[in-house]
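Quick start: what a row looks like.
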Amino acid sequence: MSSLADEVVRRLRAAYEPAADPERAAGAAAYMRDQFPFLGIATPERRRLTRAALRDLPAPTEDELAAVARALWAEPERELQYAGTDYLRRHVRVAGPGFVDVVHELVTTKAWWDTVDALAAHVAGPLVRAHPELGATMDRWVADDHLWVVRTALLHQVSAGHETDAERLFRHCRLRAGDRDVFIRKAIGWALRTYAAVAPDAVERFVEATPALSPLSVREAMRGVARARSG
């Protein structure tokens, strides 16, 4: 009998391959700087195919969740990693605090903003909110030398809304405020912009008190402030 991970991969490949579009795949690969091959399936269609393919499978255990993620990350086409992030998002509630090591593995493997951002917002974030002791792990990650580990820490609260740990958010943004990497600057701006939806005054005060922030980060943060106040 095959494992759940093997079955997930088998079913997804059977569902995806007939829907492959080589022309769309070439465009998607070019957009991602030709780092990954694609099948060429648009996200809404891929998710529809995924739901149909996996509908009758049981929910995974924590170990099975890790195995499914690793199996999908081992597949060459990028849509399989996208399916992996969606699968993790759906089942993250079965994961304990030790699952953060799996998240670290995934954000440093075949890493680019497309999977990293989804893992940060919808896997790392819920994991930290369910297990607050993992906040200390995010504190270590934000000081890491690995770009995508840092970006994950900066973005892990973008879906937290009123549950955002503002002190940690601002401390992380302050720590990386002078970073020259555009992906870090964008992450800071995005994190502040999303938090501005619930606390525009706090974000504005932070921006005013943090001159080391890049113009890009400031622009994004203040866009969120303006949107919150106009709504």
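That is the whole record. The mean pLDDT is 97. Residues 24 and 42 are 8 Å apart (CA to CA).
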